[in-house]
């Protein structure tokens, strides 16, 4: 890896929708965020990411092996490990790629709480299809067919009656009331 790429990657932390975990302990999976971190640093990041809630219930706590790709954990638990990694790295720029898209409401709430610690004082780029995920953003850029369709504050975009952002928001709001 060249110096420019390594430097650029050093200022980013990425929280993907699909987290890659290893058949190792929770502690070591979090330490991926900063290879030379002490156990105390790893545990501090884990606490901020709300990992204590599930890790301490496991037979060996943070030393518990979680299976290939975290097969022993729920999606929300895997996501909180990913957030703990990013907290541990403490990069100035955070990229959230559909970080809460596949979570149930309970886990989404726990992950949002963990994200609130991660995002403090950071520049945050959010890739999302759920409009409520970006409702507090300073600026939203809406892509349609691979091109920028509109950009602005979410509240401003909602005013445009023919806008993509408004249409997506209305569709998501309407579908929230559906029942079977």
What is shown here, in short?
With 180 residues, the chain is of the alpha/beta class. It contains eight helices and five strands. The strands form two sheets. The protein has a three-stranded parallel sheet. A two-stranded antiparallel ribbon has the order 4-5.
Structure notes:
By secondary structure, this protein is an alpha/beta fold. It has helices at residues 3-10, 26-31, 39-48, 52-55, 75-89, 105-119, 154-159, 164-176; strands at residues 12-16, 93-97, 123-127, 140-144, 147-152. Strands 1-2-3 form a three-stranded parallel β-sheet. It has a two-stranded antiparallel sheet with strand order 4-5. Helix 3 (39-48) crosses helix 5 (75-89) and helix 5 (75-89) runs parallel beside helix 6. The longest helix is centred in the middle third of the chain and has 15 residues, at 75-89. It starts with a helix and ends with a helix.
- Spatial gap, N to C terminus: 52 Å
Whole-number total of structural domains: 2
The CATH homologous superfamily of the largest domain corresponds to P-loop containing nucleotide triphosphate hydrolases
- Could you name the CATH class of the largest domain? Alpha Beta
CATH architecture of the largest domain: 3-Layer(aba) Sandwich
Q: Number of helical runs?
A: 8
Order of helices and strands: HEHHHHEHEEEHH
Gyration radius from CA atoms, angstroms: 18 Å
Strand order in the largest sheet: 1-2-3
Strand tally is 5
Mean pLDDT score:
90
Oligomer: single chain
The dominant shape is: globular
Low-confidence stretches: none
